[in-house]
Amino acid sequence: MIRRLTALAAAxxxxxxxVTAAASGAAGAAEKAADKADCPACPKNTYRLAVVTxxxxxxxxxxxxxxxxxxxxxxxxxxxxxxxxGAKGDESQILELLRKGDLHLAVxxxxxxxxxxxxxxxxxxxxxxxxxxxxxxxxxxxxxxxVLASLRExxxxxxxxxxxxxxxLTNNLRPVRQAADLKGLRVRVMESALQRELxxxxxxxxxxxxxxxxxxxxxxxxxxxxxxxxxxxxxxxxKLQKYLTLTGHxxxxxxxxxxxxxxxxxxxxxxxxLERAMIEAxxxxxxxxxxxxxxxxxxxxxxxxxxxxHPDLASFKQxxxxxxxxxxxxxxxxxxxxxxxxxxxxxx
Length: 348
Ligand code: EAX
Description:
CATH topology of the largest domain: D-Maltodextrin-Binding Protein, domain 2
Structural class: alpha/beta
Bound molecules: (2R,3R)-2,3,4-trihydroxybutanoic acid
Radius of gyration: 20 Å
Largest sheet: 6 strands, mixed
């Protein structure tokens, strides 16, 4: 009973803090709240985790599930402090803080690791996965483990893959039915060399910009953007963009990562508990995402978005098929990893 109460109290603290961090919107205030002196009720093992997204978004859902699993598993002795809604900056800034050890943990879109750990490029290679089952087969299997392990060289421990989802294009200029319709369209992309190159090859003008992007879109800094349906709905891009094309061009994953030096300094039992909780939270989130996907589409249609459900994807693939031979994949280890992914996909 006491254990349960402690866990409940811890869950309450997580929620309160998360709200405080969001409401203040200021990293300084959130920082202060996490300080031991300001929070005498906080256990000794209080670990800081950041996501860029707001409550209800997939990254945040994963983070909160992880926090609650850790609270349960530790009987309230370990507390995960979740910074969300940009309280720790954009995703590149979060990644930097994680590497420096100012943050212990983070759930980040794979794209943001592009320059730091080019192995992660393989995960968001266009038109590689065609279904969630395929993504799971590769990312939850040995090839995915290899990508996570490659993060060690950058001072990070890759713990699990969560899911953003299949990305689709929205824009404000015209219905996009084939690659030729993209000509000159300014598409906001993640800060990733691969995503930049992908849209350039498709004929669009890539506009790299960190999340969030509402201001960019409403200010006319880009004509379009691409994201999973739940993102388009949750951030109400239907109010900013007229057209949606179901391109599913990239399967976007989240990488759940920890600062390696900190992680390795933990007692083995604590490490194991954290890793188990992260894997379970990621599985929970992937499942939830998938259940919500079709709902996302019908809501966007009801909201008045004009949807091209069956674009000419062959024309997209035609333009992007040389990517594997581009300088982005020149490193032998990247070529091997892409081959490994393809071999795994080809297995019955
Ligand atoms: O999940 O930057 C992006 O487009 C990401 O998909 C964002 O984190 C929303």
